[in-house]
Amino acid sequence: MFLNFLSSPKRESMSSIDTAWLRMDRPTNLMVINGVLFFETQIDFERLKRVIEARLLKYKRFKQKVVRIGTNAYWEDDPDFDLANHFHLIALPGKAGKAELEKMMSEMISTPLDFSKPLWQFYVVENYAGGSALVARIHHSIGDGIALIQVLLSMTDKEANPAAPEKALKTPKFVAGDEEDSDDFFMRLYKPVSKMYTGMLKSYYKLVGTSYGLMMNPGKLLDYTQTGLGVSQGLAKLATMPSDPRTKFKGKQSTAKRIAWAESLPLQEVKDIGKVLGCSVNDILLSAVAGALRGYLMERGENVDGLDIRASVPVNLRPENRLGELGNYFGLVFLSLPIGIANPIERVYEVKRRMNAIKGSYEAVVALGLLSVVGMLPDMLEQGAIELFSTKATAVMTNVPGPRERIYMAGAGVKDLNFWVPQSGEITMGVSILSYNNRVNFGVMTDKKLVPDPENIIRRFSGEFEKLVLTVLMQTWEEAPDPQLAEINLGLMALVAGMGHDGRPKRVV
Q: What mean pLDDT is predicted for residues 258-286?
């Protein structure tokens, strides 16, 4: 009977890493990735339904529910699957604008998914801002951000009316570390990781059996200094890392979340300022995030002198032969954000220095191994391990590259898109950065009890970037810039004067 259970074609074991994310669910932190696509026009509900049937449901995970037996979890075909239970048409009240959608989504994000059904929900908001929107909620156990971007792309087209609008497309593959994208977001982090760790990932399973014990007993680290993979150093750093300091962002959680998103930034402007400073796009954006968090804390009377707070940063470790698959293939590293640094240029260079130090470490592989281990542990032990991880950070900060060009879904043009990363354990804030169509989008999720007004954090992001631009232009550079930098500087001066590359009025703070 037991053998028949295991060999059932309609049920398969969940990987230990996906199981770990499944079991991190708790009322105060739901393991659900939430996203929204904004359309310029009304999207055709019935046409979108046909697209979902052809393109989304080709992934079997979206027709499978989760079955838990003891410490194990399984994917099982849902015999009662009905798309109507997952695909809904709704409308916003009142002015049906940004405030109304943020409120509705905050309530959704605080609501658990139904575990008796496949763990996802789509909502078409038929009356948002003169057009429409699609809100998506997908459980983290189904896949990570890179995997779900592939799912998104498979549902879209490059034109409004393609020849075969409902045909199931071949899954597009995002290749981390592409030369053309070497300055994009986390690409500079993805690229060395994929090269350095490709061989290591084949052998790390031999080490994860000892990893959890080492994490719980750091004194044994000396016995493993000859592993050859730097695991000792990575474990030592995690085991001896102190808890993050208490601020307005960290404390006892509630079961209610709040979200906000900001007006997007032109990606070219971010690249231009990065080129002038010799920093990556990611360095610039993370420095702006640190500045925004600094401003929020100062406004609430908190002392920020010398303050650092850590962000848990997902790092892509997906092997090339699994780029088209669902599931979770990422490790975690901890980045200390220099909140205490007021000068924008000093702060961005400090972010760059810290990011470079992370790129040469083994933290991500160690974390992936530990997640694999905790996914096989009894709940009580797993929760202890998650608490150990989560006390060391205040926020989760993730950065996902989206489509470079304008896309269409069911004939409707996608004006913009955003998403919100879930948090685990005691972590109370999520900061999400997503690129789309040469623009940069920011999303923030907070605990309602601790930060009831995330819009007052995210509204500062663009202002912090503009402060950096203004500070750069006020510097006296010892060497004259080359012609390309001179052209960039003209663009930056135009930005400060009130006009960006795209002709959009700018506000300088």
A: 89
